[in-house]
Amino acid sequence: MTFMWAFARQVVAAVMLAGACILASGCDGTGCTEAGCHDGVEVWFAAPIDSSSELSVSIKADQEQVVCDYAHSKGLDTCASSGVWIQGSGSQIDGFLLPNRHPEQLTLTFSSAGSVLVTTTVSPTYVTQQPNGSDCPPTCKNAKVQL
Questions:
Q1: Phi-psi category of 40—alpha, beta or left, where left has phi over 0 and alpha has psi -120 to 50?
Q2: What pLDDT is recorded for position 6?
Q3: Mean pLDDT throughout 97-117?
Q4: How remote is the C-alpha of 25 from its chain's centroid?
């Protein structure tokens, strides 16, 4: 009887410890948490671009060419469906994301009414991130480019 009582206490303690692990640290049984990371290229402009007019966006990522249009005031965004996530707030664009792309060379042009606002070519430098540790997913390859 004493053995069964001691065993029951050990089982209850183990269940409580596992529950505390799950609640306190996101433990999923493997020691991994569920933190995420951005995989791809982040491009941030030194000065925001005004999005009140219609913008033409052209991005060449190695051999891939993406051309799209964006106008916040008109609710126009063909860039998102092309895999270019425009980042901004209100009437300004702070930059854009190219998720799941890792080009060696990136050429971008933002134009409005035929006038070029920004044009440049960059070679991103990537950093591998594993926010949950080396034995846990995800593994992201990320580059941040400041123009």
A1: left
A2: 39
A3: 93
A4: 23
Q: Are 51 and 91 in contact (CB under 8 A)?
A: yes
The CA distances from residue 44 to 52, 102, 114, 126, 143, in Å, are 18, 16, 22, 15, 11
What is the distance, to the nearest Å, from the Cα of residue 128 to the centroid of all Cα atoms in its chain?
A: 13
What's phi and psi for 32, nearest 5 deg? -90, 145
Amino acid at 113: A
What distance in Å separates the CA atoms of residue 45 and residue 96, rounded to the nearest whole number?
Answer: 9
pLDDT digits (tens, 9 = 90+) for 77-100: 999 999 999 998 877 899 999 999
Long-range contacts of 60-66 (CB under 8 A, 24+ apart): 60/105, 60/106, 60/107, 60/108, 61/98, 61/101, 61/103, 61/105, 61/106, 62/103, 62/104, 62/105, 64/101, 64/103
- The pTM for the full model equals 0.71
Using CA atoms of 89, 139, 59, 64 in order, give the dihedral in degrees to the nearest 10.
Answer: -150
What band does 30 get if pLDDT is binned at 50, 70 and 90? low
DSSP label at 84? -
Identify the pLDDT of residue 16. 41
- 3-state helix, strand and coil shares in percent for the chain, rounded to the nearest 5: 20, 45, 35
